[in-house]
Amino acid sequence: MTFFASILGLRARTAPAQRAAWFKLLEQARSGPLFASPLHGEAHWRGVAGIGLEIARIRPGLDVSMVLAFAMIHDSRRYDEGWDPDHGLRAAHVAQCASPLKRLMDDDRIARLAQACLLHQKGRSNTRDRDVGACWDADRFSLVRLEITPNARFMSLGYDDVEMRELIEVAQKISAEPPEWDVLIDAAIKREGVGA
Ligand SMILES: [Fe+2]
Ligand SMILES: [Fe+2]
């Protein structure tokens, strides 16, 4: 077997294992009480994932696995649609304990993901850890689903006017019809956008 054939064979074996781990993680996220909520349930999670993948398309080098995991987990332990100040803390606990994540990322990335979940509701931006910043930006662009226009001042990755306009348009499309999980997971594995 040539070197390239062996690499391709490895990839072919890796992708199904990764896919299975992502769906296991999703199963754990869905065990929260509001997973079917139209406001903060999995339609929103799929929207955040799709928008995050689009951000990663215009900002190469971002960790798309972190963005996808954040999308699945960050609001998965909301107990209340309104004031729920500890839902980030509960989501961080999911990130730290979910065994499928350990098959998808190393301890350092899991720790950063847990931080992203813990602090996502605090209204901060993060320009230092761009992967965490991308997670929070994706969640903020998803405000379009509530007819709130995202503001560049609160974004972590510094978008110019043209990028803001494009991302808001993409976020509106994605939020109106969020891609299914299999599309999002496959796109993340291949590091592609979702073609909004
Ligand atoms: Fe939240
Ligand atoms: Fe959210």
Question: How would you explain this protein's 3D organization?
Answer:
This protein is mostly helical and 196 residues long. It has 9 helices and no strands. The chain binds fe (ii) ion (FE2) (2 copies). One fe (ii) ion (FE2) is lined by residues 74-75, 87, 120-121.
Set out the fold topology.
Blueprint: H1 3-29, H2 42-58, H3 64-73, H4 87-97, H5 99-102, H6 107-119, H7 130-141, H8 161-176, H9 181-190
Helix pairs in contact: 1-9, 2-3, 2-7, 2-8, 2-9, 3-6, 3-7, 4-6, 6-7
One fe (ii) ion is lined by residues 74-75, 87, 120-121.
Number of helices: 9
**CATH homologous group name:** Hypothetical protein af1432
Helix content: 55-70%
The CATH architecture can be named as: Orthogonal Bundle
Proportion of residues in extended strands: under 5%
Number of strands: 0
- CATH top level assignment: Mainly Alpha
If you average the pLDDT, what whole number results?
Answer: 92
**Major beta-sheet overview:** none
Distinct small-molecule ligands in the complex: fe (ii) ion
Measure the end-to-end span.
39 Å
Query: Helices and strands, in N-to-C order?
Result: HHHHHHHHH
| Structural class assignment | mainly alpha
Please tell me the total number of domains.
1
**Rg over alpha carbons:** 16 Å
Low-confidence stretches: 1-8
CATH topology type: Hypothetical protein af1432
Shape: globular
